[in-house]
Amino acid sequence: MTLPLLSLLIWLPIIGGSSLLLFKKESLAGWVRGFALLIALPCLGLSAYMLHAFDPTRWQMQFQETHTWIPNLNIYYALGIDGFSAPLIALSCFMTLLVILASYRSVKVRVAEYLAAFLIMQGLMCGVFSALDAVLFYSFWEAMLIPMFLIIGIWGGANRLYATMKFFLYTFLGSVLLLVVIIYLQILARQTPGIDPSATFNILTYHQLSLSLIAQKWVFLGLLIAFAVKVPMWPVHTWLPDAHVEAPTGGSVILAAILLKMGGYGFIRFILPIVPNASQAFASGMVSLSLIAIVYIAMIAIVQKDMKKLIAYSSISHMGVVTLGFFTVFSIVQRSGSESGAVMSLQGAMVQMISHGLVSAALFFSIGILYDRLHTRLVNDYGGVAHVMPVFATFFMLFVLANIGMPGTAGFVGEFLIIVSAFKANIWYAAGAATILILGASYTLWMYKQVIFGAVFQPRISALKDIQGTEIVLLLLLAIPILTLGFWPAPLLEMFKASSEHLVGQILQSKI
Amino acid sequence: MLSSKLSCVYPEIWLFCLSCLALMTDLYLKRWAKWTTYFVSQAALVGVMFFAFGLIGKKPSVLFYNAFIMDDIAALLKFMIAGIGFFVCMYSRKFVFESPHYRGEYFVLCLFSILGMLVLVSARSFLSLYLGIELFALPLYALITMLKDDSIGPEAAMKYFIMGALASGLMLYGISLVYGITGSFAMPEIATILFQNPALHANPALLFGVVFIVAGFAFKFGAVPFHMWLPDVYEGSSIAVTLFLGTLPKLAAFGFAIRLFSDTFLALAGYWQGLLMVMAVLSLLIGNVAAIAQTNLKRMLGYSTIAHMGFLFLGLLAAPQQGYVAALNYIIVYTLMALGVFGILTALSRSEYEIQNIHDLKGLGVRYPWIAFLLMMLLFSLAGIPPFAGFYAKLFVLDVLMKAGHMGLAIPAVLLTVVGVFYYLRVVRVMFFEVSDAQPVHAYRIISKPGVALLSLNSLAILMLGIFPTPLFNVCSGVFAWR
Description:
- The structure holds two protein chains of two kinds.
- Chain A is mainly alpha-helical.
- Chain A contains 21 helices and two strands.
- Chain A has helices spanning 5-20, 29-53, 85-106, 111-130, 134-143, 145-155, 160-191, 203-208, 213-230, 239-246, 249-274, 276-302, 307-336, 339-374, 385-388, 390-404, 410-425, 427-452, 459-462, 470-487, 490-508, and strands spanning 62-70, 75-81.
- Chain A has a two-stranded antiparallel ribbon with strand order 1-2.
- In chain A, helix 11 runs parallel beside helix 13 (307-336).
- The longest helix of chain A is centred in the last third of the chain and has 36 residues, at 339-374.
- By secondary structure, chain B is an all-alpha fold.
- Chain B has one domain.
- Helix content of chain B is 76%, strand content 1%.
- A two-stranded antiparallel sheet of chain B has the order 1-2.
- In chain B, a hairpin with a 4-residue loop joins strand 1 (61-63) and strand 2 (68-70).
- The longest helix of chain B has 31 residues, at 152-182.
- The mean pLDDT of chain B is 87.
- The interface between A and B is medium-sized, with 34 and 34 residues.
C-alpha cells in the first residue's frame, strides 16, 4: 500500500489543529505554539516530498486516492493532483508555517484557538486543491469560510464585524451557484452515454461532457460568480479591502496568498476545461474585466493612505493579470495559431499566482511587523523607519521591488510571460497589462518612500527596535523563494508545463 | 394471527398506559411526584422506542378495519419521535423542575401529544388521521400556557387554538368533500378510485377538497401562508415548550405528508405539486427574509423553521420516490439540529431568566466556550454549510429537485439560503465577536457535566452525520424501499 500522501496533508493539520483546542489555558501558550509547529513542519516536509515525487512530465492526476463516500449519489472521496495544484498545496503548507512563526510575536490572546483555526484552514486548503470529486471540492471550499470567518471576527481590527460578515456573505453568495452547477453537470453526466456511471460527480468527468453553447454560457456564468468573487475580479472585489484591513496579519497573509488563488484555481480546474466554448465567447469580456482590474484598481491603490488597503488593492490588480493570462489564450491561438504562446500565457498566469502568493504575503508580514510596534497602518504615521530598522528596511525593499515586478524577483517572471504572450493576442491587451508595471511602481514605491525614508519626525519612531529572532527568520524564509524563483523559475515553469499543454488542448477542442 | 397483529400497536398501547400512570403518580404521590412522573414518562418513551424498533423491517400490516397501518415509515417515524421526545424531556427536566409554575402535567401532556403523533403517522383512513391530529394538537394548546405566568403565553395559546381550530375545520370540510366524491374515508380506496377514474381529476369539488386538506396540513407544518401563528407561539411559550414544539411536530407532520400525498392523492400529483411549489417558495422567501428583522431569538428560530419547511416541501414535491427519501432525510436532520439548538437554549435558561433575545447570548463564547462552540456548529449546520449534516440534507433535496427538472426552483432556493446565512451568522457574531468588557448581564445556568455530554453528543452527531451522511440516507431509502 502506498502512503496516502494527500489525505495526510489534509487530515494531519485538521486533526492536529482540533486537538490544540484542548489546551486553552493562556499559560500553555508556549507549548501550544511548539505543538503547532510540530504539526506544520511535517506537513511542509510531506509537501516537499510530494513536489519531489511528483512527475512534472505527465499531465495526468497523480497520487490519486479514491474511496466510496456517499454511494447513493456516486459521490467519492477522490483526491489527486496535477501540475497546477501541487505547487499551490506546497504554498499553503509553507504559508501556514510562516503564520505560526509570526504568531510568536503578534498574537497574545486565545493563542490555541488562533493556531487551531489556521491549521484547520491549512488542511481544508489542501483539500480544495486536491479534491477531484465536485462535492468534496465544494465541501472543502465552503468549510474553509468558517475558520476564516472566525479569524477575522475574533482577532480582527476595529471594524471586524462588518468586514467578516461581508466576507462570508459575499463568498457564500458566489459559491451557492457553484453547487447548482455541480448538480446540473452531474445530472447531465448521468444522461450522457459513454460516461462512467460511477463517476458522475467527478470533476474530470465534467471535462469530457459535451454541452450546447447556451448551456455552456449558463454554466459559465454560474461558475464565474463563484470564482470571480474569490479572485476577486472587478466589480465583485469590494469585500477584499475590508477583509484584508480588518483581518489579523496571519489572516491577511492566508487570504492574499492562498484564498485568492482558489479563484484562479477554479478557473483552470472548472471554467476553462468544462465550458471552453463559452469561455471563448466571453473571452473578450473577461479580458476587459481583467484590464479594468489592472488599471482602475491600481489607480485606486495610488490614493490609499492605509498600507494594508494599498496592498489589498494591489492584490486585486495583480490577480487581474492572472485572469488576463487565462483568457488571452483564445485570441493568442486565433491570432498567431500557435499553441505554445497559449501555453506560455497559462504558465505565466500560474507563476504569477505563486509569486503573488509569496510577495503579497511578504508585504503583509512586513506591515504586520510595523503594526505590532506602532499599532497604526497609516502611511502618514511613519517616516524615516530606515534609520532605526535598517535590516527590516532592506527586506521590505526587496518585497516592494518584487511587487513592482523587478527582474530578478519572482514578481517579474509571471508578469513578463503574460505581457509577452498578450502581445501575440492584441497589442492593446499587452499595453493595458503593462501599465501594472508603472502604476504598481508608483503606489508601492510611494508607500516605501513615505514609510521608510525621510527624517525621523516622531519620537515613537526613533524608539522603534529593529527586527530580530523569529522575525528575521520569517522574512528570510520569504526572501529566499522570491529571489530563487526570480533567478531560476525553470523548475516551476516545468511543473506547470505538461498540465498547461493539456489544458490548452482541452480548451481548443470544441465541446458542442 | 391476532397477537402478531396486535404487536403492531404495542407502541401506542404502552404509551397510553404509561401516560395514564404518569398522570396518576403525579396526582397521588406527593413527595417524589416530580421524579416518578419524569421517570415514568421516560420509561414510556423508551418502551415506544423499543417496540417501534422491533417493528422496523417487518411486512406492512393493516389493522382496525383499514384505519391503521404499520409499515417501515411509520415504525421509523415512531422510533424517531419517541427518541427525540426522550431527549426533549431530558433537556427540559431541570428547567421544568425548577420553574415556580411547575406542574406534573407538563410531562403528561407531552406524552399525550406524542401519542397523537404516533396515531397520525400510522393513519390509514381520514378518521384516524383526524383523530391523530387532534390528539397531538390539543395538549399543545395547554402546554403553551404552562410554566409561565405572563400574558404572552395565553395570547399565543389562544392564537394557536383559534387558528388550529380553523385549520381543523377546513380540513374536515375538505375530507367531507373528498368523501362526497369518492364515497370513502380509507386512503387506499380513495387512491384506487382516483387512479381508475381520471375523469374525476377535474372535478372542482374534489380539487377543493384537496386544497382544504393541504391547507390544514400546511397549517400544522407552519408553511406560508398558514404560518402566522408559528413565530408568536415560539416566542410566547416557555423555552421548554418551544423545545417540544420546534422538534417533534415536524416529524409527525412528515408522516402526515406521506399519508396524504403518497398514499392518498398520488394520482393528483400534478395538482398538489403546484400547491407545494408555491408554498415552498413563499416559505423560503418569507421565512428567511422575516428572520433577518428579528431581535428575539425564539422568533428568529421560528421564522427559520418556516424557511426549512419550504426546503422540505421542495423535497416532497420533487419526485414520488427519491423525493420522499431526501425529504425524510432532511426532516430527521433538521429535527436533530433544532433539538440541539433549543436544547442548548433550554439548558442555559433559568426560570427567572429565559434566553429570549439574541443579545442574551453576548459573550457566551467567553463564558462557555464549549457550549458556544456546539451552538455554532448547529447554527452553521442550519445555515447549510459543509461539513455539517444540514448541508448534505440540502444537497440531497437539491439533487432530486433538479433531477425532476425543477431548475427554476433550485436557484431561488439556494439564493435564499444565502439570506438565511446572515441571521445565523449574526448569532455566532454575538456569541464570539461582541465581547463586552462589562460583567455579563445575565447569568446563565451552570450546565451539569452529563448535560454537557448530552448536548455534545447531539451536536457532534450533526458533524458526524455530515462527514458520513450515508448511513442515515440508507435508513431513509430503506423505509421507502418496499413501495
